[in-house]
Design brief:
By secondary structure, this protein is α+β, with helices and mostly antiparallel strands. It is built from 3 helices and 13 strands. Strands 1-7-8-10-11-12-13-4 form an 8-stranded mixed β-sheet, with helices on both faces. A hairpin with a 5-residue loop joins β7 and β8. The chain is globular.
């Protein structure tokens, strides 16, 4: 577990990148910083994206836009019991929020359609399992609080060449997947990020 600082606000809706391309407002968010950390850990040496492009086309066969909840994934299979790698990060002290980077087969999520709420629920379950120590009753309250405080999630599936990022609005409890990641072949070592062009988010139920 490690501390993750709040990123500087360098993203702006409607901003333009170095080649004049549209840059969605995602690079100033904590979930973007978490994505950069995750890529450096699980895909070292790969070219990290400097920003995100408009996420309407080029999402590949598994990626899709799911209305106000942002991006999602259509998977060809699901499989419970898989144990992907994970790293947990904490941001803040008095009222901490937790983030988790998960790397492994997306089939481990256990559903063929992965949206923001399903990814968040899976991440919170993994966080509890990671922090709960079997036979130690004192670890239960902390694991429960930490799981409920997960607000940023990054899932990277290198084999399928895809990744998905989810975040929670601390004020409203709304959840959205603002970033989808396409991971190139090992011979390319390229990573492309797609971002939402606006911020509408539904409440998490």
């Amino acid at each position: 577990m490690d501390g993750a600082r709040e990123p500087s606000g360098n993203g702006a809706a409607g901003a333009r990148g170095p080649q004049g391309e549209f840059v969605p407002d995602v690079t100033g968010r904590p979930v973007w910083r978490l994505l950069m950390r995750g890529l450096s850990i699980y895909l070292p040496g790969w070219q990290q994206p400097a920003g995100a492009v408009r996420g309407t086309r080029g999402l590949g066969p598994s990626g899709f836009l799911n209305g106000d909840s942002g991006f999602g994934l259509h998977l060809t299979r699901r499989r419970r019991g898989l144990e992907p790698d994970r790293e947990i990060y904490v941001r803040g002290k008095e009222d901490p929020s937790f983030g988790i980077v998960i790397a492994g087969p997306a089939a481990a999520i256990g559903t063929r359609v992965v949206d923001a709420s399903r990814l968040l629920r899976y991440a919170r379950r993994l966080t509890f399992e990671e922090l709960y120590e079997v036979g130690d009753a004192d670890s239960v309250p902390y694991a429960v609080r930490a799981a409920k405080a997960v607000e940023n999630v990054v899932f990277l599936d290198r084999a399928e060449g895809v990744g998905l990022c989810a975040e929670v609005d601390r004020q409203t409890g709304a959840v959205v997947c603002p970033v989808l990641v396409k991971i190139g072949a090992p011979s390319e070592r390229t990573i492309q990020a797609y971002g939402l062009t606006n911020d509408p988010v539904p409440a998490l139920t």
